[in-house]
Design a protein that fits this description.
The complex is a heterodimer of chains A (371) and B (200).
Chain A (H helix, E strand, L loop, with lengths): L4 E3 L2 E4 L12 E4 L3 E9 L2 E8 L2 E4 L5 E3 L6 E2 L5 E2 L7 E3 L9 E5 L9 E4 L5 E5 L1 E3 L16 E3 L8 E11 L9 E8 L4 E10 L2 E3 L4 E3 L1 E10 L5 E9 L2 E10 L10 E2 L4 E10 L5 E10 L5 E10 L6 E3 L3 E2 L9 E9 L4 E9 L10 E6 L5
Parallel strand pairs in A: 8-12, 9-11
Antiparallel strand pairs in A: 1-14, 2-13, 3-6, 4-5, 5-11, 7-10, 12-13, 15-16, 16-21, 17-22, 18-21, 19-20, 22-23, 24-32, 25-26, 26-31, 27-30, 27-32, 28-31, 29-30
Chain B lengths: L4 E9 L8 E9 L15 E9 L6 E9 L4 E2 L5 E2 L3 E3 L9 E5 L5 E9 L3 E10 L8 E7 L5 E8 L9 H16 L5 E3 L10
Antiparallel strand pairs in B: 1-2, 1-13, 2-10, 3-9, 3-11, 4-8, 4-10, 5-9, 6-9, 7-8, 11-12
The chains are: A mainly beta (371), B mainly beta (200).
Chain lengths: 371, 200
């Protein structure tokens, strides 16, 4: 029998979707999915979708999940994918999906393109898939890792920083203190040690309502660093390898604090280049808007990461040596940016190799006493 | 105060079947228009006309200039300076058309020519390319004095975001076509407005 089977699994984080149920007391936990070979069934092997996510009912009364939108289904442990929509009661405290097998593809299943909404705020899962009976499973690479959010903290080059937040964790993965594996150091040399690792589980705020990621903190002692560097390590939780986490180590001889990277809170719009054919100066206008809800503290700086070697920024205000990556020229954007406010600056460059484009990646820095 | 006036009109040309969208701009100067040094654009004065196309992230664009009008002025063909990736006729401005191109291997294209002003100066440029963030390819028109002072500058970015135009692009296309059909003269906008960089 000719066999063919393909799956495409997409997990989209951060989407806000229309709630199909009363979400007031039900919130999603974790997000992660992997595909494993399932047990043999007549006709061949079939995959098992193991989803490390689900919902928790934090209220005092049961919540009934019903089918919401046509074409979007909800599934439960052991549920055959092609069969859907039976009501499901979540009892208070019930945490039905965590690390559970949520769907088996059985021999009688004919999978068609469907999608599931798996959480209100964090994950949407679609499984455009097709298959035929008797298809041996082509195992898809497991797509499952602890989602970590590197903390935007900078360590001094000497001394011990207590209870430093080193990562945020979305989802309930149990205790991630089991393994912390130093991977290496990029950009320098020196000593570092980690102790008192503490995991704070994620929580749900009913008043928001919002899902507050968990976090991992540790005491980190560093010494002997002469240049900015990044210390990279890995966390595992319940045997699940996490993403690598890198913690910047700043070169901060004066004891000041480094400017924070607030690029994610901004929209930088780069204009095109033009050259003054007499002075040979190249110009570009850059506009930076605070797209967040909170003010950006000054001084606000535009740093040019990875500026192409053919170009030199003229008229800049300095070069980063604390807010890594170091060595990036920067210019001032002013003393602060209110939400929605835009600052504009005209950058000037020399570019002796006119046939090569000037390229860089904009980085927006805020506050601090060291850049 | 003498209002600084430059005539600019814009027409977006786009078709869903095109591999990239095109944008058309026209620029017109008339004798008496105030330049950046405060002096008027003057009949009989000598200027250096400069067209540049600079590459950004993609460096894959063309700027096709046509309907170059000297308003009775004259351009010296011996004063032409241009890069390799420019296609122009022997007389340059006087021939009324030329094309600049940037590629990933050569991201700067330029054309200079000295000319003696007539009653007006104008041209139309069609920009073709696909914008890939963060830096757009960009077309620049500059006018220099004999002493090398920038008297006028206008930049247009290649900002076509995708193969398929968005609804507002169609709206602008229709508006542009309507303007072409109905307007006997060119819409006037202020020179001191920021450089146009139309996006949807």
């Amino acid at each position: 029998m000719k066999t063919s089977f393909c799956f495409a699994v997409t997990v989209i984080f951060g989407m806000t979707l229309a709630p199909p149920i009363a979400w007031g007391q039900v919130f999603p936990v974790a997000h992660c999915i992997e595909i494993k070979p399932g047990p043999p069934v007549p006709g061949g092997l079939y995959p098992i979708f193991i989803a490390h996510f689900g919902y928790t009912n934090v209220g005092a009364t049961p919540v009934t999940i019903i089918r919401g939108i046509a074409g979007r289904n909800y599934f439960d442990a052991g549920q055959v994918i092609s069969v859907t929509t039976q009501p499901r009661d979540f009892l208070p405290g019930h945490h039905p999906f965590t690390a559970a097998t949520v769907a088996n593809v059985l021999a009688t299943s004919q999978i068609t393109a469907v999608s599931w909404i798996l959480s209100k705020n964090f994950a949407s899962l679609s499984m455009p898939a097709e298959g035929t009976l008797g298809t041996p499973l082509a195992v898809t690479t497991p797509f499952c890792s602890l989602k970590v959010i590197p903390a935007a903290q900078f360590l001094s080059t000497t001394g011990t920083a207590l209870a430093q937040p080193i990562a945020g964790v979305r989802g309930d993965f149990g205790n991630p203190t089991a393994v912390v594996t130093p991977i290496g150091v990029m950009g320098g040399s020196g000593g570092i040690s980690i102790s008192n690792l503490v995991y704070t589980p994620s929580t749900y705020s009913a008043s928001q309502p919002s899902y507050i990621p968990g976090k991992i903190t540790a005491d980190i002692a560093v010494s002997g660093w002469a240049t900015p560097a990044q210390f990279v390590f890995q966390i595992k939780a319940d045997g699940i390898p996490a993403e690598l986490v890198s913690v910047p180590i700043s070169y901060n001889p004066t004891g000041g604090n480094c400017a924070s990277n607030v690029t994610a809170q901004t929209i930088a719009t780069l204009g095109g280049f033009s050259q003054n054919i007499v002075t040979r100066v190249w110009s570009q206008t850059v506009r930076v808007q605070n797209s967040g809800a909170s003010p950006i503290a000054g001084p606000v700086l535009l740093a040019l990461d990875n500026l192409s070697a053919n170009a030199t920024l003229t008229g800049g205000n300095g070069v980063t040596n604390c807010a890594i990556p170091a060595g990036a020229p920067y210019v001032s954007l002013g003393s602060g940016l209110a939400p929605g406010q835009t600052a504009a600056v005209t950058l000037t460059f020399t570019n002796p190799q006119m046939g090569q484009a000037i390229t860089y990646t904009p980085r927006i820095l805020s506050g601090g006493t060291q850049q | 105060m003498n209002r600084i006036v430059i005539r600019i009109w814009i027409l977006f040309l786009a078709a869903a079947s095109l591999a990239s969208a095109s944008t058309i701009f026209s620029v017109a100067l008339t004798a008496g228009d105030t330049l950046l040094d405060g002096n008027p654009f003057t009949l009989g004065d000598s200027y250096l006309v400069v067209f540049q196309l600079t590459g950004g992230t993609t460096s894959a664009s063309t700027a096709s200039l046509y309907s170059i009008g000297l308003g009775g002025g004259s351009a010296d063909p011996l004063s032409i300076v241009q890069s390799n990736n420019v296609m122009s006729l022997p007389n340059g401005l006087s021939d009324g058309a030329l094309t600049l191109e940037v590629t990933p291997s050569d991201s700067y294209s330029f054309f200079y020519q000295q000319y003696s002003a007539g009653t007006d100066f104008g041209f139309t440029v069609m920009l073709s390319g696909i914008y890939s963030p963060p830096t757009p390819d960009s077309f620049t028109f500059q006018l220099y004095s004999d002493g090398g002072i920038v008297l006028y500058e206008q930049n247009f970015n290649v900002t076509s975001p995708s193969d398929v135009p968005e609804p507002c692009t169609w709206l602008l296309t229709g508006a542009g076509c309507l303007a072409l059909m109905t307007a006997g003269s060119i819409h006037r906008t202020s020179l001191d407005e920021p450089a146009l960089s139309p996006t949807c």
